[in-house]
Amino acid sequence: MTVLDPKAFLTSIFDAAVAAADPERTIRDHLPARPKGRTIVIGAGKGSAQMAAAFEKVWDGPIEGLVVTRYGYGAKCQRIEIIEAAHPVPDAAGLEASRRLLEKVQGLTADDLVVALISGGGSALLPSPAAGLTLADEIAVNEALLASGAPIAAMNTIRKHVSTIKGGRLAAAAWPAKVVSLVVSDIPGDNPALVASGPTVPDTGSREDALASISAYGMKLPAPVVAHINAPAADAPCPDDQRFSRNEVHLIASAGVSLEAAAAEARRQGIEAVILSDAIEGEAREVGGVHAAIAREVATRNRPFPKPVLILSGGETTVTLRAKGKGGRNSEFLLAFAIGISGVQGIHALAADTDGIDGSENNAGAFADGSTVSRMRAVGVDAKAMLSGNNAWTAFNAIGDLFVPGPTGTNVNDLRALLIR
């Protein structure tokens, strides 16, 4: 076995996945033609500021613009203004950013070009409540969605029906200018209309779909929100709307591409790699248990993959909040995984969000191995109790196994890497 330091190896795998989604390289490969008129750059998401900085480097022509990103995720730009706002729960700065983005695309002509730099996280960063609703209503919707356990597609279908900017409405406001959307996908299945709730990319999700998800996941939303979604005024533009007829959408980075890069890096270091899927969804702790069963099978029976091997998966799990602990979907996945492999030697794992932040703390995820649960027990931490209390961050912090790479400048969803030696 050539791997001497599992944590260093797993970190290099994470780095390779993130590098494959590097904004400068991916944007250069998808530049639109220069227009006769103005070029306006807009954007939203946890990777949008780095995308803006990259666009400035590679664009040969005059530009102006505005993008919004999460607090602490800014980048230095010369011509594109960067606004920072709250994520995962919207705030007044995001409300002002949404207003200014809509204002930025007013009064354009057919000779103008709008370049939209869209990445995951944009849903929370673009609060823009529909008529009759308030920022407090939109915050309540977001909090209910985050606690519901609903998949991201269902969440974003609901979000776009209470907004004046999501569901293609920002692109519609730019008409008759051409809008070219450069999208970094953090969505299982890579539907660009669902990334950041599709401010520039409409989809077919309807009010009826939104209402069905609200019912299915038992969401408690403010009465004005429910009344609005029940009214025709909530309808979002359809993809065949004339205002989108000249637009282009380019998926410039995704989980699938990053997982392939991670697998290639493992093979370069002498470890065979397999990819389970780039679109795994479900309750984080349950997905963790399934991954643990696969890892145990390999470790103890050398099947279905021979050792040594790196097992990779991507996608976006969800967490149904049962308590008010500190955590995130990756750390919760990994705590369940650690419980499932407790005492089994030769297994090392990293689960992390490729944007660098998992949940509300400053870690992207955490590391785990067969000794994780016993090491927690040694410092007075009950792993199962922590999992029950949605307190995975506290559990991993107690043993120094949080993974804190800082903001990465991109966002292609979660990376789960399981090394079986």
Spans where pLDDT lies below 50 across 5 or more residues: none
| Pattern of helices and strands | HHEHEEHEHHHHEHHEHEHEHEEHHHEE
Kindly state the number of beta strands.
12
Describe the sheet with the most strands.
Answer: 6 strands, parallel
Specify Rg, calculated over alpha carbons. Answer: 22 Å
Helix content: 25-40%
Mean pLDDT across every amino acid position: 95
- Sheet with most strands: strand arrangement: 3-2-1-4-5-6
End-to-end span in angstroms?
7 Å
Shape: globular
Number of helices: 16
Overview of this structure, please?
- With 421 residues, the protein is an alpha/beta fold.
- Helices cover 38% and strands 18% of the residues.
- It contains 16 helices and twelve strands.
- The chain has helices at 6-19, 23-28, 48-58, 92-104, 122-125, 135-148, 152-160, 169-174, 207-216, 223-229, 255-268, 284-301, 329-340, 372-378, 383-388, 392-398, and strands at 39-44, 64-70, 80-85, 113-119, 178-184, 248-253, 272-280, 309-315, 347-353, 365-369, 402-403, 414-420.
- Strands 3-2-1-4-5-6 form a six-stranded parallel beta sheet, sandwiched between helices.
- Helix 12 (284-301) links the parallel strand 7 and strand 8.
- Helix 1 (6-19) crosses helix 11, helix 7 packs across helix 9 and helix 13 (329-340) crosses helix 16.
- The mean pLDDT is 95.
